[in-house]
Write a structure and sequence with these properties.
The protein is mainly beta and 517 residues long. It has 1 helix and 36 strands. This is Collagen-binding protein.
């Protein structure tokens, strides 16, 4: 039993020793040191005067990035975190493309996690010196920034490397003491399917008789009826700030009528004594097909219509561009003897950095083969299949590509496989084999290849290491008692058929006057 176990162990070791190990695909990784800078601008990419932003302004977050040669593969990522005072209106997916429209990476902005993640495609495995820019559009979180002032934006990557920028947000300010009606809306910071609407009535504090307001929503969102809140206030302006004094909830005592699902009317009656109203409510966005929303609010008082259209935008955009360089290898496969082109040679292209198989090529009828989109680096060509009739040569052919050597051209030759032939000498009548016959071997053109080749006791002779071509055996000495026959015995060694020896037969007649016992 011990001997059997030992034998099994030996067989297992032998099997393991002949298994070809191929490089395994590694899992995706988070890349370091990809982000070179993060900074903010206005939506059009320019800096505001004195670095000041309005509280309602769209802020463009810009990212400069770059990856080192050979450091990234398909599926690898980098990411960064937005400061809490910046928000994006919805989940966002976008592409980063090169000038030809090829996708370098795919970006995803997570609205809830305040995080942007970029995932590279296999573009990074085919290019070098890859760098670019990207952006996303964001807004200030009005729940955090309630007034103007100086703020520091801190962006961090996955390795807590921070990029900081100081900005100034201008006070909102209010400078219209004669305002009769105003309305605005914004997408809720905590729910991108919800829009918050605000209406101000009679900041001017004038008497408004028989005041009736009508509001109608545009397509794409639906009024949430029970979200309507109406407050009676006295508006006051202090140092550019609009303040609500004597704020009282009068929702339950104010007449609200719904004529359509998205249209309602509020009857205020007579507005006197310097009072006005603050109205808030919500609408629900209908699916993902809409990004721009409006309300048309009309206030009729003193037989005059006052109109205000409020708008809200859910669209958050992002994008980016980049570029990279790559290289290629071109081979010419030829016969080592006369240099003619060889079809059907196949090669693996191996990157020496990580022993990774990056491509495969095969020569065409002109003996040419190529592989493009190689990142700069060191490579090896390894022949996996020789042209028919030629010897496989698995000696690696090394080459290097870089910025100044983007196209590598190589000429690689192959040697024909050698063939062999067996000649058998026999008696013409009895068919018995004959020893002692001598021959010379010549080419079809008469060039002597070998001489004094003699049949053995079995009547056979063997000639090896013959390249494909046409040959002839010519008898130079007959077996004893037999007539010499110089008639050539022609044969061919064919390319691709060299693994098995060719066979020919030469007959001889007895000389006249001789006999055999």
């Amino acid at each position: 039993m011990k001997k059997i176990s030992s034998l099994i162990m030996i067989l297992l070791l032998l099997c393991n020793s002949i298994i070809t190990v191929f490089p395994t695909k590694t899992s995706a990784e988070t890349l370091d040191n990809v982000i070179k800078n993060i900074y903010v601008t206005k939506e059009n990419g320019t800096k505001p005067i004195d670095n000041g932003y309005s509280m309602s302004q769209t802020v463009r977050v810009n990212v400069d990035w770059e990856i080192e040669n050979g450091s990234a593969k398909s599926g690898d990522t980098f990411s960064f975190n937005l400061p809490k005072i910046l928000i994006i209106n919805k989940q966002l997916d976008f592409d980063i493309k090169d000038p030809n429209g090829d996708v370098i990476a795919k970006g995803h902005a997570d609205r809830w996690g305040h995080k942007v993640t970029v995932t590279f495609t296999d573009y990074v495995e085919k290019h070098s010196n890859i760098k670019g820019t990207m952006f996303i559009l964001s807004k200030f979180d009005r729940d955090i920034i309630t007034d103007g002032g100086d703020y520091t934006l801190v962006f961090t990557d996955d390795n807590t490397v921070s990029f900081e920028e100081d900005i100034h947000v201008n006070p909102s300010g209010f400078n219209n003491p004669d305002e009769k009606l105003s309305k605005y809306g914004y997408v809720d910071p905590n729910d991108d399917t919800l829009i918050n609407w605000i209406v101000r009535v009679n900041v001017a504090g004038i008497d408004m008789m028989n005041a009736v307001a009508t509001d109608e929503l545009s397509p794409g969102h639906t009024l949430i009826k029970d979200s309507i809140k109406i407050y009676k206030v006295k508006w006051e302006i202090e140092n550019g700030k609009l303040i609500q004094n004597e704020k009282t909830d009068v929702t339950d005592t104010t007449e609200i009528m719904f004529s359509l699902p998205n249209k309602f009317t509020i009857n205020f009656g007579n507005i006197t004594d310097g009072y006005g109203y603050y109205i808030s409510y919500h609408s629900k966005i209908d699916g993902n097909d809409y990004n721009d929303f409006s309300n048309h609010f009309i206030l009729n008082a003193n037989d005059t219509d006052h109109s205000s259209i409020g708008n809200a935008h859910r669209e958050t955009s992002g994008g980016g561009d980049g570029d990279g360089e790559n290289s290629s290898v071109e081979i010419m496969k030829v016969d080592s003897n006369d240099g003619h082109a060889l079809v059907g040679a196949e090669f693996d292209v191996i990157r020496t950095l990580d022993n990774k198989l990056v491509g495969h090529l095969m020569t065409d009828s002109d003996g040419k083969g190529s592989l493009s989109k190689l990142p700069f680096g060191n490579y090896e060509l390894v022949e996996t299949k020789a042209p028919d009739g030629y010897k496989l040569d698995q000696t690696p052919v090394k080459f290097t590509t870089d910025k100044t050597h983007k196209v590598i051209q190589l000429k690689i030759d192959n040697r024909l496989l050698n063939g062999s032939v067996i000649l058998t000498k026999i008696d013409k009548e009895s068919k018995e084999t004959l020893a002692g016959a001598e021959f010379k071997l010549v080419t079809e053109q008469g060039k002597e290849i070998k001489e004094n080749v003699v049949t053995d006791k079995k009547g056979k002779l063997v000639v090896e290491k013959l390249v494909p071509g046409n040959y002839q055996f010519i008898e130079t000495k007959a077996p004893k008692g037999y007539a010499l026959d110089k008639t050539p015995v022609a044969f061919e060694i064919k390319a691709g058929e060299t693994s098995k020896a060719g066979t020919v037969t030469k007959e001889n007649k007895l000389e006249t006057g001789t006999f055999e016992l």
